[in-house]
Amino acid sequence: MEWEAVRQRFRQVWGYDEFRPPQGEVVAHLLSRRDCLVVLATGGGKSVCFQLPALMQRGVTVVISPLLALMEDQVQDLRQRGLAAAALHSNLERSVRSQVLGGLSRLSLLYVSPETLLSPGLWGKLCDPQLMINGVMIDEAHCLVQWGDTFRPDYRRLGAVRSALQRSKPPEHPPIPIAAFTATANPETQKELISCLQMRSPVVLGSSVYRANLHLRVAVAWTEAGRRQQGLRFIRSFPHTTGIVYVRTRRDTETVADWLLAQDLGAIAYHAGLTSFQRREIEQAWLSGATPIVVCTSAFGMGINQPHVRWVLHLQPPLTLSEYLQEVGRAGRDRAPAQALMLISEPTGIFDRSDRQRADFFIAQQEQQYQKATQLVRQLPPKGRVDELKQQDPDLPLALGLLHRAGRLRWRSPFEFELVPATGSLPGFDRRPIMAMAEYQHTKNCRWQVLRRAFGESEPIARCGHCDRCCP
Q1: Would residue 407 count as lying in a domain?
Q2: Which of 41, 111, 358, 369 could bond to 87 as cystine, CB 3.0-4.6 Å?
Q3: pTM reported for the whole predicted model
Q4: pLDDT tens, 127-137?
Q5: 232 and 196 together in one domain
Q6: With contact defined as beta carbons under 8 Å apart, do 20 and 43 qualify?
Q7: What distances in angstroms separate CA 82 from CA 5, 78, 108, 132, 163, one per listed residue?
Q8: How many other C-beta atoms are found inside a 10 Å radius of the C-beta of residue 408?
Q9: Distance between CA 22 and CA 6 in Å, rounded?
Q10: DSSP assignment of 184-232, as one string?
Q11: Residue 414: what pLDDT?
Q12: In this structure, is residue 342 part of a structural domain?
């Protein structure tokens, strides 16, 4: 395929004359059917990297995405550009689902969750020998490591997908590449993604997490009232702009949004407990500027294309640097100056222990999940099928993700597993990411330097000039 034809399609559909590095390299590798691991900062244009190759080839590219909202947003954007794309999920009406399943051969891109991908109705269609599969793309791939142990164990089955699809096709079917895309993956996470997804000599491409237009700041709040007042001053320092306020719980999104409305600031709450229709309405109001401030949990922002966010406020800190980098990265995607402020409890815990209490609650939940999965391990047969386990006990698949991460389980297919004999105890909940966040909060060094080191970058920054440690 001539490269000029690829560039012309890029200009025609997306309106850009040149690729951002390393977009062009990724597109070229996927067109040549190479496996890829792509780590690009939020706003770096990851989606184009797999959408463009899909449009340049005959057949369907399967995109595995973690969130319904993320799928729907990308499909809507593609359809507005006149492209053949669809999402398949459990919230669709039966007639719409049947229409998508019946029209797979006419699609360029199909967006699904890991759970939907491995459902009997869709899997049988994808394994049709006549259906051309151009590739399997894992969007927001850090979710595999973040959620694959116990919360969403179907992520751990994805490594067996490519080979199973390839076996279902005739010998003349071209090799099916698999690629993973994320904004946050340190060297350890990259290694786990390559191993879990069974990548074959993948090309690893990426960019620095450093964003020169984004100023990072952390401030101590001695009381909850002081936290709100500092947050209010920060928001009011950006009049008539678009911003995001992150909190940890659904209840807090609503109470903080109501409080901001009482301060004559246009705000609305967003969380995973809203209906799909409500979430779409809120997103559109925010994207259009009708409601300039969204108060949300981490459920908001992934994949939403809003380039003009001038500020992000963490009224309550996230638990990990990966979450933090994802969320602050939603500011300044247009490369104009933007600000990110994180408010944290005072370190003594005498006046305010709210951050510690939230972290302790999360850790307790995770450890409970791991304990439950460890207990379930004893009930697993030496080999079996996932669907049979679910019939026996819907919770049993939780143990499969934990065993797979420990190297004590092998997937014979996306549906069949086999235990690997091993000694020693199973791994527990990893607290290191939470400890890394605490180190970042209290560091005396350049914040961008701490982030770059945490994500495997070794080149030093003398003084970034874009954080409160280097430029108070």
Answers
A1: no
A2: 111
A3: 0.89
A4: 999 999 999 99
A5: no
A6: no
A7: 18, 7, 11, 21, 32
A8: 16
A9: 15
A10: ---HHHHHHHHHHTT-SS-EEEE--S--TTEEEEEEEESSHHHHHHHHH
A11: 96
A12: yes
Query: pLDDT for 317-335, tens place per residue?
Result: 999 999 999 999 999 999 9
Single-letter residue type at 279 = R
Describe the crossing of helices 23-31 and 46-55 by its angle, rounded to 10 degrees. 30
Question: Which candidate, 60, 52, 73, places its Cα nearest to that of 130?
Answer: 60
Within this chain, do residues 191 and 46 fall inside the same structural domain, yes or no?
yes
Cα 50 from Cα 48, distance rounded (Å): 5
Mean pLDDT of the chain: 91
Residue 428 CB neighbour total at 10 angstroms: 12
User: So what's the pLDDT on residue 351?
Assistant: 61
Q: Per-residue pLDDT tens for 357-393?
A: 888 888 888 888 888 888 888 889 999 999 999 999 8
Rounded Cα gap, residues 87 and 108, in angstroms: 11
Which residues lie below 8 Å from residue 384, measured CB to CB, with a gap of 6+? 416, 417
- Under a CB-based contact definition with an 8 Å cutoff, are residues 293 and 235 in contact? yes
- Kind plus residue range of the DSSP H or E element containing 245: strand 242-246
Q: How many domains does the chain have?
A: 2
Q: Sign (positive/negative) of CA torsion 80, 86, 88, 92?
A: positive
Rg (CA), the chain: 23
Domain with 123 in it: what CATH number? 3.40.50.300
Q: What angle do CA 247, 248, 251 make, to 5 degrees?
A: 85
Same domain? 42 vs 147: yes
- The full length of the chain comes to 472
How many whole angstroms separate alpha carbon 284 and alpha carbon 130? 39
Claim to verify: residue 29 and residue 72 sit in the same structural domain: yes
Residue 22 preceded by cis peptide, ω within 30: yes
User: Which run of H or of E encompasses 286?
Assistant: helix 276-288
Q: Tell me how far apart the alpha carbons of residues 453 and 443 are, in angstroms, rounded to a whole number.
A: 13
Q: Please state the three-class secondary structure of 32-63 as a single string.
A: CCCCEEEECCCCCCHHHHHHHHHHCCCCEEEE
Range of the domain at 313: 214-353
Instruction: Count Cβ atoms within 10 A of the Cβ of residue 13 and give its class: 0-12 exposed, 13-18 middle, 19 or more buried.
Output: middle
From the list 370, 358, 361, 282, the residue with the least C-alpha distance to 316 is 358
Output the pLDDT for position 150: 75
Q: Would 450 be classed as within a structural domain?
A: no
Q: Which residues of the chain have pLDDT under 70?
A: 303, 348-352, 461-462
Which ranges of 332-458 does DSSP label H, i.e. alpha helix? 354-377, 386-392, 397-405, 432-442, 447-454
In the numeric block, the tokens 């700041």 are attached to 217
Q: How is residue 166 written in tokens?
A: 């390839």
- Same structural domain for residues 156 and 243? no
